Amino acid sequence: MSKILVRVFFVFSILLSCAYYAKAESTVEQLIEEYLKDNSCANTFDCMSPFYYKIADKGPDAVVPLLEALGNKETLYVQHRLDFIYLLGMIGDTNAYSALRAVFLKNTDYQDAHMWRLAISLGACLGEENIDDFVVLVVRDAADGALRALREMSGQDFGQNEEQWAAYLNTAGHLETFRANCRERSKPILG
Q: How much is the pTM?
């Protein structure tokens, strides 16, 4: 009888601990809120909030909450839009392409550096079905930051020749290498 009680107690304690840890895991929305409130890196050079990496670690599960955060009009969210774009680029899920494309088109007043950054995140989320669209967007970017990003991430320079760019990205292996370079460049560089 005592062995049965010990086993029941053991199983019960495992179930309780599993329930505790399941509750303790934060949702992406909670992590975004914590990231926005986090002041651990305030006025510190080469520092990134731990919540930033926790959001990125959620991978594709973070895409929808990040897209919602990107569209949020509250001041704190607006101040961190570029961070959300970086995170989407780090994750590199093709489901984010359309939303990032809309941001790209909507923000034609962005300066060169922001269009460069946005083009890299857009490239990280690029799927085969969107190559032609991506090339047109990037080549026709008036600020030239997006085309500069395409050149840097691909290691190629076809100028503004959309057909050559599309052919290059459609060649076996080039798209995945390009996407991997974009995802890597989306990571914060510290130090």
A: 0.81
